[in-house]
Design goal:
Length: 327
């Protein structure tokens, strides 16, 4: 039997705490129905007897305070909300306990942006981590020593699990359940809770938001210019000369400030523009590609798949209202 401690972090989301509790509890029920013993003991643990959640919208009563939990097998770190630096400050009291439990063999499971708390313990330094794609820029600024996997739904390294966007934490919990009690129980849980098991990528959900929290004025102007002109074709020389910087210097500064090369940034801006057109569903794929400034349709198809993990046609089928109404 494994003991699970779900952290009642200050300003955690109620849904991620309750969702974790419900999913692990149902595994016990499934096992009992099949004549087997329950596998999990599940407790919500906190610094104090009562914790404010969702920006004080809710208050939760914990089963135990962490000072009362001497040994646990899996620590679930819920999604946190609000101002990350402020929220991390309010949860510093958990850090020593989490580090000590990990050193004693506990597994750690971070749900979505719960990764900010886990990273604040230092346990993610030099390790892979997933988080919500929209939090990528802020996470990289706050925790440069962590190897952030932008596309990943799940990471698993040395007993530390992390997950991507908000409800992807359910995929992580199914993954952990499969490791603990087997594929059959994981599949059963996915069917009962109607979770799309086996998702591996955030690419199809990602909306590109260029890193703009930097102080390079020329790079910021270039970013704005490119985003305002997604249908135009520019060479790197044209962009660098427009903002009065030599090509090699500008390329180096752009990569340092944004995390993308100029070519990558231009491609990603165009991909976002095309995604919006595909969602509208009023033009053919080839028309959209030509209008965005690409003459080589096959080349852009490869670029689109690189950043979304989907073909242009599959993306339209999935997200276009017009395609949905025809199906």
């Amino acid at each position: 039997m494994k003991h699970i401690s779900i952290l009642a972090l200050n300003d955690a989301t109620m849904t991620s705490i309750d969702g974790s509790l419900q999913l692990f509890s149902r595994i016990n029920d499934f096992l009992k129905y099949s004549g087997k013993a329950a596998f999990y003991t599940i407790e919500i643990v906190g610094l104090t007897a009562h914790t404010s959640l969702n920006g004080a919208l809710y208050t939760i009563n914990v089963d135990k305070k962490i000072s009362e939990v001497k040994k646990t097998d899996l620590i679930v770190i819920p999604i946190i909300c609000g101002d990350f630096p402020k929220t991390l400050k309010s949860n510093e009291g958990f850090c020593d306990w989490v580090r000590a439990q990990y050193q004693e063999g506990a597994e750690l499971a971070s749900l979505c942006v719960g990764s900010f708390f886990l990273a604040s313990t230092g346990l993610l330094n030099g390790r892979k981590c997933a988080t919500h794609w929209a939090a990528k820029n802020e996470f990289e600024m706050m925790f440069p020593a962590v190897n952030l996997m932008e596309d990943a739904i799940i990471t698993d390294e040395n007993g530390i699990y992390t997950s991507g966007g908000t409800y992807s934490y359910l995929n992580l919990l199914l993954y952990i359940i499969e490791k603990h009690v087997g594929r059959e129980m994981s599949v059963l849980a996915s069917k009962m809770f109607e979770i799309d098991i086996g998702r591996k990528s955030q690419h199809q959900f990602l909306i590109f938001m260029g890193q703009k929290k930097h102080d390079d004025t020329a790079v910021l102007k270039a970013q704005q210019f490119l985003e305002e002109n997604p249908d135009k074709r520019f060479t790197i020389d044209e962009i660098s000369s427009k903002f009065g910087v030599g090509r090699r210097t500008f390329e180096r500064r752009f990569k340092k400030s944004t995390g993308n090369s100029l070519i990558e940034y231009m491609q990603r801006v165009k991909v976002e523009a095309i995604k919006k057109q595909l969602e509208l569903g009023t033009k053919t794929v080839n028309e959209i590609i030509f209008e965005i400034g690409y003459n080589d349709i096959n080349a852009f198809r490869r670029v689109f798949r690189k950043y979304t993990g989907m073909s242009l046609v599959d993306y339209r089928k999935k997200y276009s209202q017009a395609a949905q109404s025809q199906s």
